[in-house]
Structure formats: C-alpha cells, structure tokens
Amino acid sequence: RKRIKGIHAGALVKGAGAAALATLFMGAVLLGWLRITASHSAALTALGGVVIGGAVYAAVLVALRIPEVGSLIRMLKRWLSR
Predict the structure, then answer these.
(1) Whether this model's pTM surpasses 0.85
(2) Reduced to 3 states, what is the DSSP secondary structure of residue 81?
C-alpha cells in the first residue's frame, strides 16, 4: 500500500473551492426548478431535481477542469468501449 506523503494544501483548497462553487450554482438552479414545478407532482419535482442538479454540478466541475472529472470520463469511455 502506498502512503500519502504530506498534504497538498493548494490542491485541497482548489478542490474545496470548486465543490463550493458547483454547489452554489446547483442550488441556484434548483431553486428555480422548485419555483417552476411548484404546482406539479412531487415525483416530477424530485426526479427532475436530481437529474438537473447532478447535470449542473457536473457541468461546473467540467468547466473548472477538475482533474478527477477528466479521469472519470476517461474511465467511463474505456469501460463503454469494451
């Protein structure tokens, strides 16, 4: 098992900042979604919220070029090309 040698504070702060920014965008979009779907069924609101929230969060992380997202996309492409 490899040991982690030291904590890279810069990378941690960048990752936390990216997650916070993505969360803020997602929250703002979901507030709009809740207003739009206020008169619709709870199932539609919940399912749509999960899909839209996840998509917005992922889009922000991709736009910020977070390395882990790129790694995940490459992994998925390899898995799908089997």
Answers:
(1) no
(2) coil
